[in-house]
């Protein structure tokens, strides 16, 4: 398994790896042990590659696309290539699972002629979102992929888009959510398995006994953003919630578990909490639109207000809206009145909850980590050498 | 603000974003859409609709940005859009004297 040292990428893939191991398969990872070990547990096999930090992660908008590829994906692929190649030679896998952003895995699989699957833990590449609106950006990404192909000493041009294995593409979503952004099927096997939720918990439980069962409950969580981006949004969100104390209570997740200024009693700041045991008590989630948060929320049939900041979050927000499972608001622009109106709409209109439940049911039917493990096991058996 | 096309774009950006007068007052020809205004693709599409309604389909902003490289997109300014509109418009900017 090859991914990037980012929780949102590793967590779903780790759930698939756990399922494969439970079936008796051997799984190894190559990557930063200091990052992977806490995420994977003490028993995981890890071929260690020292963690190297990359610049530009604070960028937004188009600049974030540029820094993702030129400042992260490409240097990370070059930096990890030799260590991954050595790990593959030593471990001799029957198949490789490759995060769409861990391009070195695609290169090594081609070098050794091994079956491999692309894994899409985010929505960023799946629909190749720039191919029509910003074709020069898509071409620029393809140039980077071709450059990596040559860097790995492979002949000519990449025979296909290296983000999409010709063997198998596993996406942790379903058509009920991602229909607007699914890749065109040029002979690829696309497995839409829904979210892969592991046994490990990200953070402590929220004390649900603090919640008043007579009022609706709203969870506000905008991920691990630097507070300088989030401060204004939190301020406006608290102002949006302030007059609603009669009818609802809000759990607001912040990096340090506090909010500045006067916070009304029905607004409860908290540090990072585990979602699985909290979500059954929640009526609506306000999120930045990270795919994991969006999918966990929809899995519980809860509608969303999505305020996307960067990366694939705008894509996820648009998908939530298109599915009817919530609304998109502007993270940078929405004022308290607009946030309040949108939140009340999401809470009060049953259609949002019904649509969220439909998407959640599609996740349940898609099979998650179990289905993904089945696809990978089939791939390994077909290409395996024993 | 000298360029009437820039002035009109600032007004249209206000319509599209709902931002406050102080935010709009800080916008000039050199303001970058990406890093300075954090303009999102849905906002660009809305801006494009307003521009085409005033200046005709030839002023199409989405086709203009589709032809730009990633470095040009990062550096794209309000002045760049104003020049594109001025070059392709069927009409004078609203509120400005006819040329």
UniProtKB/TrEMBL annotation, chain A:
* Residue ranges occupied by any Erythromycin biosynthesis protein CIII-like C-terminal domain in the UniProt entry: 251-361
* SUPFAM superfamilies membership: UDP-Glycosyltransferase/glycogen phosphorylase
User: Which InterPro entries does the record match to this protein?
Assistant: EryCIII-like_C, Glycosyltransferase_28, UDP_glucos_trans
Q: Which PANTHER family match?
A: STEROL 3-BETA-GLUCOSYLTRANSFERASE, STEROL 3-BETA-GLUCOSYLTRANSFERASE UGT80A2
Name of protein: Glycosyltransferase
Taxonomic classification, please? Bacteria, Bacillati, Actinomycetota, Actinomycetes, Micromonosporales
From TrEMBL, chain B:
The name this protein carries in UniProt is: Acyl carrier protein
Native source species: Luedemannella helvata
The superkingdom listed in its UniProt entry is Bacteria
């Amino acid at each position: 398994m090859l991914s990037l040292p980012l929780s949102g990428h590793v967590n779903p893939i780790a759930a698939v790896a756990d399922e494969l191991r439970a079936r008796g398969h051997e799984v190894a990872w190559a990557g930063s042990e200091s990052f992977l070990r806490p995420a994977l547990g003490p028993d995981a096999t890890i071929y260690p590659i020292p963690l190297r930090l990359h610049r530009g992660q604070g960028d937004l908008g188009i600049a974030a696309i540029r820094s993702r590829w030129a400042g992260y994906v490409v240097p990370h692929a070059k930096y990890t290539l030799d260590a991954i190649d050595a790990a593959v030679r030593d471990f001799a896998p029957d198949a490789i699972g490759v995060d769409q952003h861990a391009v070195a895995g695609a290169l090594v699989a081609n070098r050794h002629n091994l079956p491999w699957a692309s894994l899409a833990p985010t929505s960023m590449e799946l629909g190749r979102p720039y191919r029509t609106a910003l074709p020069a950006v898509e071409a620029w990404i393809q140039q980077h992929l071709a450059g990596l192909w040559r860097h790995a000493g492979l002949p000519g041009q990449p025979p296909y888009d290296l983000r999409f294995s010709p063997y198998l593409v596993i996406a942790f979503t379903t058509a009920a959510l991602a229909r607007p952004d699914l890749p065109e099927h040029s002979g690829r096997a696309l497995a839409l398995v829904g979210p892969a939720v592991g046994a490990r918990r990200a953070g402590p439980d929220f004390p649900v006994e603090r919640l008043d069962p007579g009022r609706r409950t709203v969870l506000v969580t905008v991920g691990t953003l630097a507070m300088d981006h989030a401060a204004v949004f939190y301020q406006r969100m608290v102002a949006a919630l302030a007059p609603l104390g009669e009818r609802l209570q809000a759990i607001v997740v912040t990096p340090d578990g506090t909010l500045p200024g006067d916070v009304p009693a029905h607004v409860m700041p908290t540090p990072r909490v585990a979602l699985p045991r909290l979500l059954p008590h929640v009526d609506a989630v306000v999120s930045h639109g990270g795919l994991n948060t969006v999918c966990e929320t929809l899995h519980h049939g809860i509608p969303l207000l999505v305020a996307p900041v960067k990366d694939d979050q705008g894509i996820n927000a648009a998908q939530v809206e298109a599915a009817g499972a919530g609304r998109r608001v502007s993270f940078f622009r929405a004022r308290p009145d607009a946030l309040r109106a949108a939140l009340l709409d999401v809470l009060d209109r049953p259609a949002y909850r019904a649509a969220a439940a439909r998407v959640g049911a599609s996740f349940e039917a898609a099979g998650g980590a179990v289905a993904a493990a089945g696809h990978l096991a089939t791939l390994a058996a077909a290409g395996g050498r024993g | 603000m000298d360029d009437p096309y820039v002035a009109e774009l600032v007004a249209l950006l206000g319509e599209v974003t709902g931002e406050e007068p102080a935010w709009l007052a800080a916008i000039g020809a050199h303001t970058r859409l990406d890093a300075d205004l954090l303009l999102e693709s849905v906002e660009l599409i809305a801006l494009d609709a307003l521009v085409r309604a005033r200046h005709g389909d030839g002023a199409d902003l989405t086709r203009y940005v589709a032809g730009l490289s990633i470095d040009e997109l990062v550096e794209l300014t309000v002045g760049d859009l104003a020049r594109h509109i001025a070059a392709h418009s069927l009409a004078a900017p609203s509120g400005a004297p006819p040329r």
